[in-house]
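Record 1 of the preview.
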Amino acid sequence: MIHDTESIRVLCPKLLLTDSGFQWLIGSPFFPPLTIVSTVSCIHHVSSSPDYDKESDDLRTLLPKGFRIIGALIIKNSDVEKNAREAVDSARKLQRHLSGEAEAELDVPVVIAAVADLETGDNKFFVSRSGNSNNIEAVEYVIYDDNPHKYVWDRGCLIRCELPLKLPFYYPVNNPSDAQKMFLHATEALVDKLKDPQVVYLAEALSLASAELPQPVIVRGKDLDFGTNLSNMKLVDEGAEDFDRKDLSCAHFCLKSNTASTIFSAESADIIQVSVLHNRSEKSLQSTAPIAEFYPASEVARLLVVDFKLQVLCYAAKSLPLMDAISKLVFPGLVDQLNSMKKAIVPYLLSQHPQLCPFHFSPPGLLHPVTSIYELNYGETEMKQVDVRKSLHLRLGLPFDRPLMRIANALDFSNTKDSSRSNSLRKGSPLLKDVHIGIPSSGVSGGRVSLVQGSYEYYHYLQDGFDDSGWGCAYRSLQTIVSWFKLQHYTCIDVPSHREIQQSLVEIGDKDPSFIGSREWIGAIELSFVLDKLLGVSCKVINVRSGAELPEKCRELALHFETQGTPIMIGGGVLAYTLLGIDFNEASGDCAFLILDPHYTGHDEHKKIVNGGWCGWKKAVDSKGKSFFLHDKFYNLLLPQRPNMV
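->
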């Protein structure tokens, strides 16, 4: 049997191979030293070397506490051992930048170096067990874990701490340059306050299974050791005879039923919620009246208040004592996030402050979540925010043609503790999704079916208690289209109401103010304006002079579903439909249209909708010679284009 210290265990499916030259290897203090959990690309360089300042600034926020840099992968085809020593040296430099001390004794016992060959795809591994990068040893045995998600999430849980803060401070009006100094002083005082003996950390399980939830636990600041060194941590066994209750572990908050689960991921992990409370009143044996103290300023001063919304996510072994989890993971996480926001705010201190908010993501191919701080003042389509997401995609090896790191992709913790409350506030049942799945075939012999790609919600007349019968079919088709973009995570906005759609058209100058609240119809052109304004989505419009010409567009419509995959709105005369697919035989010209009809007025019952023909295949001319599309009406087809963006 190969011992853990003699072999390297690789949990990520494959090490990222790009032309960036460097990959940082990610591990955890809760796993054996030679365990690679994931890799991230080095994206900041100075000449041919990593820019350690920028890399450490990014990674300090990106990686949840509980994961850390344990090595580097270098991609070159020359001297292998020389490259391995360079990888070790780079990893140690980055570790020191992350620790903030150039000569710090690093909290990583072994550094791993990997050298990748781009031609063969082979990786050679080395380890360095001392601070000297020249002292390296080759490792021959490499284990690629068959179930890496189980390895990570069977052992650990997530700790979440959300802390909104208002930071007030004064600065002299006649000397505004002192504002930065006063702001930095105020943030330092805030960090000290988090370590105050009067601070209380309240830990509780964040789960829906309320019957299994343990009671919340209070940890007082005076009992905590606020160190960041995890190398000497002591894991606890609550089943041991000499177990001390003060060593209560994170497992106390983890559902025992999860041990039999077959789903292992960040989304399904046990979550511990930690709240920070501060005792602002001291106990006194004597009753005293409130006292106000006045401190006169030496010159005219102005009050400035900066808002922080801290939200950290940490990974902890279930056997880690709760007190260590708070002092060695949660507290450093709060400090790092505060410092990161502070650095972003300083240049704009006396102007409009950036609206900064952390979001947590679990992108595909990564075993652990990551965190990014977004600037929300100008929305997700603002170019600086787009550049931030592009850099995240580059660092994490994600494709650049789909949204994976937008706000809509962020982990939603409201689905755990508070979801029962939020669901109870919703009127009626959730909307039906993907109602075309399982419907009877079109009847086209030898045809090729091209369908909408992804999920959508079915919007139709009289939903939400709103009577739009006779005039709102195009509004409902637009709502279905917007739901597609939302469910595919291209946006996080809510599906707009009829009034919000009208408001958008007034704001862009297409309609007069009297249009708001009216029952006027809208068509394909108006829908394109709304999609552009609300989602930044461009549309292609196809015009046909008669319903008889629609079959001639089948090849073009099929290409749309195969390349774009978005629902299409068909408007003609006074009717609008949503098109979900095409069944087309090129040889015979026979075709059918998969129509989702917004004119339905009944309850959201899938069987009733399908049996009634409200979602089904429609031939241009049926077996009885009746035309579905009117020959004396023109039609506009709105084809929303899938954004090729991050």
